[in-house]
Amino acid sequence: MHPIVKPALRRGWRDLNTVQFGMTPAHAMVLGPMDTATGSFLELLDGTRGMPLLREQGRGMGLPDGHVDGLVDRLAGSGLLDDTTAGGPDADALREKKEVMDRLRSDLASLSLVARDPGGAVERLAARRRLRVRVLGAGRVGVVLAALLAGAGVGEVDVRDLGRVEPWDVAPGGLPVESVGERREDAARRAVRRAAPDRPPRAVARDGKGEETRGLSLVILAPRDGLAVHAPDPAQTEGLIASGTPHLYAGVVEATGVVGPLVLPGDTGCAGCLDRRRADRDPAWPRLVAQWRSGRQRRVGACDLALAAAVAGLAASHALAFLDGDPPGCAGARWEASLPGCAWRATPVAAHAACSCGTARKTNGERTPEDGEAHERMAGRQPNAAQLAGTWRAHV
Question: Residues 339, 219, 123, CA angle at the centre, nearest 5°?
């Protein structure tokens, strides 16, 4: 072990005996009492020394036997300590890629504040490189979102869409002006490559029919048509529900940004649950949706750059939290913000008893033998290296 006090946290002395690590309430912590010698010893915890050398130098500073080990254990238990050698073989391989590590150094620092265990941050970063995410939609939200995920270290981010790039699809960080007129999929994939030129090569295993056999960790539905995120069609995700594939909605409709729900099949409400609950509250809802979906007018959506960027950023943060093993705030909920105020608000998407997804029955403890077999199949998939016990996880 080569311990290092997490460098992402600024350090300050509150008084002669109390040290504060971090500034923000979410991650700051106060430790004390701390004597002068121990405070000086903290400077040696910079990741360049192993425990034998630290014990020797601690004795040279007058610290009693066992004090160094006790301090290291205390800091580690408080989530304030990292280890520059931990994380396993994948983390070691990642550390050898200097250009990759330099590009992801800020992401690694952020992860160190979320992953409490020493070595947990680089372990999660290495795990991201084995994940597969598909983004359905190559507009102002979808391409920026895909680029953010790739830039944050997700190993494979595939974008799917039809048609050609229109001038109003262009966005900073997404599709460039010179891509207008090109196939959307081709232009989107180039944008993803620009965000992460050092990502691992795509390794696709296929069965005898030519179908991919390695499952997707997450599918993100980021439609260019705002209606498809405001009132998503349950039929479009029947395959994802059946295969147990987590999926997240994100988009902009009539100057309103939408992120969520993140659907965890069998555990959270889906698009069908959302649709049925709206119909319960508003008898006219099915009639309105039918009219909206039957329209054939060619129109440009009200999707300004700033709101689209905000939606892409929030959706990417929620997606990364899920992929890393933390419960995101959009699991079973929709986050919405409308211009001009852009104040985000969350609305739960509860499971509906009449929905064909069966989540309401399952979450009430009424599992059939078939349900149990399906959950065993889902649980049997290989999770990423940062799996947290007791949480619904993405699968490699």
Answer: 100
Q: Residue 369 corresponds to which amino acid?
A: P
Nearest to 267 by CA among 165, 174, 360: 360
Residue 254 lies in a domain: yes
**CATH number for the domain harbouring residue 154:** 3.40.50.720
Residues 6 or more apart whose Cβ sits within 8 Å of residue 82 = 3, 4, 5, 6, 47, 112, 118, 119, 121
- Among 353, 333, 355, which Cα is nearest to 344's? 333
Q: What is the pLDDT of residues 7-49, one digit of tens each?
A: 999 999 999 899 999 999 999 999 988 888 999 999 999 999 9
Cα atoms in the 13 Å half-sphere on the side-chain side of 363: 16
Residues 68, 133 within the same domain: no
121, 136, 267, 332, 351 from 366: Cα distances, Å: 38, 33, 12, 19, 14
pLDDT band at 379 (very low <50, low <70, confident <90, very high): very low
Higher pLDDT, 207 or 31: 31
Both structure tokens of 178:
């010179």
Rounded to an integer, the average pLDDT of 340-357 is: 93
Work out the average pLDDT over 305-315. Answer: 97
Q: Are 51 and 175 members of one domain?
A: no
pTM, to two decimals: 0.87
Q: What is the pLDDT, as a whole number, of residue 204?
A: 58
In a domain, 204, yes or no: yes
| Distance in angstroms (rounded) separating the CA atoms of residues 197 and 99 | 10
